[in-house]
Amino acid sequence: MKYAILGDIHANWEALCAVLADAKKQGVTHFVCLGDVVGYNASPVECLERVRELECPIVKGNHDHYCAIDEELEGFHPIAADVVDWTRKQLSDEQRHFLANLNYVNRVETFTVVHSTLDTPEMWGYVFDKLEADASFAYQTTSLCFYGHTHVPLAFEKTDRVRVGLYSKIKILLGRRYLINAGSVGQPRDGDPRAAYATFDLIKNEVELHRVPYDFRITQKKIHDAGLPNRVATRLASGR
Ligand code: ZN
Question: In order of start, what are the domains of the chain with their CATH numbers?
């Protein structure tokens, strides 16, 4: 049994297709989605419907939340807010209802998934450092938890103290806890423009990070054609 962990797809159809094709090659049998299926890029309907076809657990991201409701936007960069406004108009009432009803946290098999943090998932906090990770660990009841939101793949390990580092492959060891960011499928921000996702092999108890190149020029053209902010398109080339 091997899970693909898909985080922050952000309406990037080309990146999602590349990742799903790669997951097939990796022998993935199951999927889980860390939220923010929509927002930023120009294919929210296509991405949401494709993810729903996977019939996998999905947790709610902040963009999913704000695209699903009509409430005023809090804590959003003006560019992201512009795209939320546009996305609200693309989605059907049924699709917005679906997003509105997603859980903040899900337990899947032996692990947990959340978009932001386990301590206050509805506050959309970011886990970048050990202190933030430790606050989340206090609420983590499984040995392994995957999270998203920062768009930066990073792994925290807790024994008597918290350690942090970049990762490509991690063996999940007994008696320790792990909080692992699977990176972003549709808008990486670690300086690598390739789509990111993680796999979790439940037999080997091993997490692996994958990077998949895709033609972001097609995604950029769709962003321009939709009249969305130019910065949303240019950042895909730099992975920032
Ligand atoms: Zn996001």
Answer: 2-238 (3.60.21.10)
